[in-house]
Amino acid sequence: MVKLARKKILLGIGGGIAAYKSAMLVRLLVAQGAEVRVVMTKGGQAFIQPLTLQALSGHPVHCELLDPEAEAGMGHIELSRWPDLILLAPATANLLARLAAGMADELLTTLVLAAKVPVWLAPAMNQQMWQAAVTQRNLHSLTQLNPHWQFLGPDSGSQACGEVGPGRMLEPQAMVEAMIAALTAEAWQPLAGKKILLTAGPTQEPLDPVRFLSNHSSGKMGYALAEQCQALGADVVLISGPVELACPAGVQRIRVQTAREMLAAVEQHLPQCFAFFAAAAVADFYLPEVAKHKLKKAEQQLDSLTLNLLPNPDILATVAGHQQRPSWVIGFAAETDNLLPHARAKRVRKGADLILANQVGMFDSGMKAENNAITLIADDHEHSFAMQDKTSLAKEVMTYLCQQIFRN
Ligand code: PMT
């Protein structure tokens, strides 16, 4: 079944190497029944031929602001009023800068300036360009000035230029799924306008430049929850330890390594939070004095090694007792035995409203696995969710929370 039938999407393509992925994006949108019109900047045309996009979308591609022939067909103002949604992918540093400055010097920025419909931007650029203060400032002004604009990504990982870091454009499939969730009539958005903060994945506590203390958390459970919160309309900030997962579409991800970095990022994003989910498996201890050089067993003639570790801050307990405490503080309990008694005690000890208890230490569920089962523990009742894959489990848990808990 096609899910975007009769939806009108205007795709703006900026001048970055990720433009090649936009061809696949058009193909996927058309396959879902969407009507797609493409607008390209000059830079975009340097990376991919308009003819390719014309063939895939079935419509002429718009490239010029002052083209009498095109204006006679669908003029630029009319074109800006036509879609249900405008998606800029790739949104390059240059495109973001020109939008932030309100430039209307070519067709795409002019259209966006004249648009009344939602505008989504999928940034794609070199990691240093993404992290540059001026790009971040442009991003900040764009979100401040246009609260209804939405950023998809960027993701982190290896880049076409050979560097590694944030700035990769989200995969076309993830963007299409986000559009389906946002544009289809059945989209149920009980968390619209609410900010949700989550932690996910492990933390790593360095011992020396090449070694660290950590655990087997893959981040899958926390990421699945983040994705569901976003699908239910929330503004989602995900503080993630080092994991191999792609950032869910529409979610703002902040990557950290240690528990202390995780706490700092959480506190920074705590203001105005509706709910906090602590799904991360935080290392309990850290080494205060990390060796500057690799510890050498042979040189030090070590038969054994004693590390003087200090306890890490408890992020969940800190949030639960914080001046800016969210309305709902939700922790996890990962236990290998006596799951429920330990989890109940943990809820009280850490000051959480709810604990999601999951058994770990089994090969086919819990930490690292694809599947999980959860018992939700509140002060006055408990509710179990059967073993299933983490995506559908997160969906069930979030539906239950929205219908039964968050309304109280
Ligand atoms: O990442 P996956 O492979 O998908 O696995 C998911 C999971 C099993 C890691 C996840 O579902 C889970 O249970 N996360 C919490 C793991 C854990 O550390 O549990 P805990 O019982 O040690 O901690 C209790 C709670 O306190 C947790 O919410 C934890 O995030 C939080 N905590 C713990 C220590 C600390 N210093 N700060 C914390 O915030």
Q: Give me the count of strands.
A: 19
The helix tally amounts to 15
Number of domains: 2
Shape: globular
- Mean pLDDT, to the nearest integer, reads 92
What would you say this structure looks like, in words?
There is one protein chain. With 408 residues, this protein is α/β, with parallel strands linked by helices. It has two domains: 1-186, Rossmann fold (3-Layer(aba) Sandwich), CATH 3.40.50; 188-408, CoaB-like (Rossmann fold, 3-Layer(aba) Sandwich), CATH 3.40.50.10300. It has 15 helices and 19 strands. The protein is globular, with a radius of gyration of 24 Å. It binds ligand PMT. Ligand PMT binds at residues 199, 201, 217-221, 259, 278-282, 312, 314-316, 331-334, 346, 358, 360, 366-368.
Structure summarized in a few sentences:
The chain has 408 residues and is an alpha/beta fold. The chain is 35% helix and 23% strand.
Ordered list of secondary-structure elements with their pairings:
Elements: E1 8-13, H1 19-31, E2 35-40, H2 42-47, H3 50-57, H4 68-73, H5 76-81, E3 85-91, H6 93-100, H7 107-114, E4 119-123, H8 127-131, H9 133-145, E5 150-151, E6 155-158, E7 164-168, H10 172-183, E8 195-200, E9 205-206, E10 212-213, H11 220-231, E11 235-240, E12 252-255, H12 259-268, E13 275-278, E14 285-286, E15 310-311, H13 315-320, E16 328-335, H14 339-350, E17 354-359, E18 371-377, E19 382-389, H15 390-405
Parallel strand pairs: 1-2, 1-3, 3-4, 4-5, 8-11, 8-13, 11-12, 13-16, 16-17
Antiparallel strand pairs: 6-7, 9-10, 14-15, 17-18, 18-19
The chain binds ligand PMT.
Ligand PMT binds at residues 199, 201, 217-221, 259, 278-282, 312, 314-316, 331-334, 346, 358, 360, 366-368.
